[in-house]
Amino acid sequence: MDRQHRVRDGLTSAFLALLAALYLAPILIVLVNSFKGRFFISDAPFALPTARTFVGLQNYLSGIAKTGFLQAFGYSLFITVFSVATIVLFTSMTAWCITRVRSRTSSLFYYLLVYSMIVPFQMVMFTMSKMANVLHLDNPVGIIVLYLGFGAGLSVFVFSGFVKSIPVEIEEAATIDGCNPIQTFFLVVFPILKPIYITVAILNTMWIWNDYLLPYLVIGSNYRTIPIAVQYLQGGYGSRDMGAMMAMLVLAIVPIIVFYFSSQKYIIEGVVAGAVKG
Fold first, then answer.
1. Which phi and psi angles does 205 have, rounded to 5°?
2. Less crowded by CB within 10 Å, the N or C end of the chain?
3. Domain 68-232 - what CATH class?
4. H-only helix segments in 69-177
5. From CA 218, how far away is CA 222, in angstroms rounded?
6. Does residue 241 contact residue 66 with C-beta atoms inside 8 Å?
7. pLDDT digits 0-9 by tens, 163-179
């Protein structure tokens, strides 16, 4: 029996290692090609840089100059940080209200939010971009409202599942001690939601940081985010600076990878807490 367990564990480890290699391969290929000359990437995309193909940091310097990367990074950072903070704050409050106030109205509102998760973005993108223009939301501040709308469905769904596991007696004790609903939420409920709101923040950060279509439709080239700036490295008639593009992709990936690994333990805590409670 022990031998069977060891064989099974070995096969599982080998399969997971292979799966990890498949996921990491595209990132490694982009990283390797970011140090190669633009004319050598298409000829041998999987080869390591040699003395002939290695160009050092030339692609990075060229890409930063051509795309205005630092400005694009600032716009992406601003939009991502404030969009995620807005989503976490408002959707957690919404989920708490929907879960605790049981009525037909709250149930209808909950199912409408869940239904919004299955509506494809392409179905509403033209109407949404027109309304954004009419309501003057076509700027880095206004797009935060749009991200709140698109991110509310999944976030409320995740928060609601966790709020149901929080004992109502804790909130009743806070009410007896003189807390109003706002104080009860921010002083009692919100700290308990920490593993979940960090999980929600990570999921939305990865989505918003890498999003291309919504910023392109709403704010366009006036306020270029990183995905839009990288796209501008593709010139006319199919010409493109692959070296600079690879370098900018690496710079775009690094912040989100650092953020993910620094917050990874909170995802595990959230999954474990959700499995144990309720």
1. -65, -45
2. N
3. mainly alpha
4. 69-100, 104-116, 121-134, 142-163, 168-176
5. 10
6. yes
7. 888 888 888 888 888 88
